[in-house]
Amino acid sequence: MSLLYTIVNIAVLVILIGLLIWMQKKHFSFTKRVFTGLGAGIVLGAILQLVYGTGSEVLTETTEWYSIVGSGYIRFLMMIVVPLVMVSIIQSIINLEKTAELGKMSAWIIGILITTTMIAALIGIGSATLFDLSADQIEAGHAENERGTMLETTLGEVENQSAPQKILNFIPSNIFLDMTGERSTSVIAVVIFSVIVGIAVLGVRRKNPEQAEMFTKIVNSLYAVVMRIVTLILRLTPYGILALMANTVASTDFAGIVELGKFVLASYVALIVMFVIHLLLVSLFGLNPFIYLRKVIPVLGFAFTSRSSAGTIPLNIQAQRNSLGIDQGIANMSASFGATMGQNGCAGIYPAMLAVMIAPTVGIDPLSPGFILQLVLIIGISSFGIAGVGGGATFAALIVLSSMNMPVALAGLLISIEAFIDMGRTALNVNGSMVSGTLTSRILKKMDVKIFNDKTAIEESSSL
Description:
The protein is an all-alpha fold.
């Protein structure tokens, strides 16, 4: 009987996919199809959980089949990340008029990412204080204790690396290994390699322009092919979001969310406040925040459902270039850097809230100026090299808590709501990278404001 129910559930997903295909043929906009997939996924997931219950055999089998569409889509995106980052950055550099522009772009992007992360830390501290959060308020069960033990084991591995060693991890020693994405800093390593290649081409252009011209033509051809692959993959976005959202809602532990409702509320209040700060920054630079919001929502919707900053890189770059009018090189670098450093949600808000929650258990006043200053500085420094996939926030929390001499095992108390909160964190991370690209492009006068203000630009670039 369970097999029959599973087949019925699969048939429902197929019907919804058919609806999205019909919408595409009827030329519904990309945004409308994305939000239709998002809404349908939420409703479908809620019905599945209501009918079968969390942990049931039918629900487990159904979500496994749905993962072919959802997780399959994420894998396609991850597949194109490295080629896209590499070719895009090389092409961007060889098209620069002056190499000095590269340094300015990188400095502004990284500076904005780290600064906003430190601001996010202050927001996290404020939210945790406002809601009077404390680790003592959570009762540790078997799962929480297991999680705490695992975090302590992981901490041992993290502490074995000194600060210089962590910095060295950014530098590629085997670029082919980093092309496989095996390390948490692989994207940054690929960026560094691509920058070196681009600078080398500029040097060859001065001494042997013919060879440089030949290489440039090859890169431009590769870029055209890679961007075509990106376009083909992005066409699958509504279907991927449909399946991802259905699985997420169907598998969510709503009992845990209710039990830890105050912690969930405090987290999302902090995330929303920081998101509003992002919009205020956009407006301070003379741009309409509502136009910005309308154009980035499809990207944020995917980030929310996938919980992967790295997987969102192709959509991020596409939206920045075609919808926001951001310079190609800045879009490429901000999306790439933002996936592994300066993540406002995972590296800013989350570890700050945990530190405030845990501080009273070890006799520390979380509101003392010395504690807050130390925490914010450590968060800013440690926000480099955070993995842009699910789990990066845990890594950030380990570094921050251990640097503050706090017990990391208590971070395992939030395991039941971790996935739900991580969805919002990832969306904020991605928005932070897009804001850094937007502001940098505006500061360096490399933004096409006409494209930004063109309300149809999002449809033209995304009606795939």
